[in-house]
Amino acid sequence: MVSMTGSLVALALILAPAAVPQTPADLEREKPAIVQTALDYAEGYYGGEPARMARAVSTSLSKRGLMVRPGVPPFLVQMNADTLIDAANGAKVAPADRHIATEVLDVQQDIASARVFTAQFNDYLQLVKRNGAWQIVNVLWHAPPAAGQKTDGAAGAVERAVRAYVAALYTSDAPALLAIVHPQANLRTFAPPPQGRPRIIREQNPETLAAALAGGMVKMPGKADDAQVVVQGIDADIAAAKLTIGQTTTYLHLAMTDGKWRVVNALGYPPAPPATTSSR
Questions:
Q1: Is the N end or the C end of the chain the one with fewer CB atoms within 10 Å?
Q2: Which helix (H) or strand (E) holds 237?
Q3: Average pLDDT value for the chain
Q4: Domain with 233 in it: what CATH number?
Q5: Confidence of residue 142 (pLDDT cuts 50, 70, 90)
Q6: Cα–Cα distance between 140 and 86 in angstroms, integer?
Q7: CA 191 to each of CA 133, 167, 229: distance values in angstroms, whole numbers, following the listed order
Q8: Which domain holds residue 262?
Q9: Is 276 a member of any domain?
Q10: CA–CA separation, 278 and 119 (whole Å)
């Protein structure tokens, strides 16, 4: 059993010596494979190719859709890998009518942020690279918004939401954290286990993190003002952002619910701990 403390060490963004950094050229070389994964995901669904969908998504996939319905507040729907792969059976839309557009928003080491917008669904993606292959682990999607829908001022509001999340971590303010994170948020890290084993996906829910904050278990490096926030994309009421604290990158998905932006998905990449030596 992984302890709560062990899980939080990764999420808390504690500094440690980093691995040899990738060059911009290294990262650029990853983009075609990430685009191909996004195409396998979208074309696999529309074209009735479950094998392509299975190749594109991690067995740990968490796919959230933001639903907006008359008379009820916006709400999230959930889909796992098995459900999505099964849904890929049967062709649905002809290639000319799919209108698939992909974009790699960022790549850092073995995680990436991307988007795939299509005729029926607009999706922000978070991916990890394992065993040489990129797979999707987190998705936030919605139906394409009406043409001409404005997002004036949304980038500032999204950045403020991310900085409110950072402030809650630095001040150990559990109520503030729960106010800015969606109750169904999935907070994940692609974390390095001890003894140099391959990275694994660790996750926790908002209540676990809030309890750790209240108990003084989360130790943050530096100052909150040092955090770097980049809003990677906004599509009406869903958004993607990149948060950098020290040597840790965290990709965030946010959704507009109850009139404010809230974190729905997080995928962090903490640096590997320093190598340890044993003596006899």
A1: C
A2: none
A3: 90
A4: 3.10.450.50
A5: very high
A6: 19
A7: 17, 23, 21
A8: 148-269
A9: no
A10: 57
| 86 vs 197, more confident | 86
Contacting residues for 225 by C-beta, under 8 A, at least 6 apart: none
Alpha carbon distance, N-terminus to C-terminus of the chain: 29
pLDDT per residue as tens digits for the range 221-246 = 999 999 999 999 999 999 999 999 99
Indicate if 178 and 205 belong to the same structural domain.
yes
In whole angstroms, give the CA distance from residue 183 to residue 66.
14
pTM of the model as a whole: 0.91
User: Token digits for 65?
Assistant: 């859709």
Beta strands at 248-257 and 133-142: parallel, antiparallel or unpaired: unpaired
Q: Which runs of E-coded beta strand occur in the chain? A: 57-67, 75-79, 101-108, 111-117, 122-130, 133-142, 181-191, 200-204, 228-235, 238-245, 248-257, 260-269
Where a domain ends, among 142, 176, 207? Answer: 142
Model confidence over 54-91: pLDDT tens digits? 999 999 999 999 999 999 999 999 999 999 999 999 99
Does 191 fall in a domain?
yes
Give the separation between CA 42 and CA 45, rounded to whole angstroms: 5
- pLDDT band at 48; cut points 50, 70, 90: very high
Given 121, 142, 163, which residue is the final one in a domain?
142
* Distance of alpha carbon 126 from alpha carbon 147, whole angstroms: 26
Tally the domains of the chain: 2
Domain assignment of residue 274, yes or no: no
Q: Does residue 15 fall inside a structural domain?
A: no
* 279: exposed, middle or buried (Cβ count in 10 Å: 0-12, 13-18, 19+): exposed
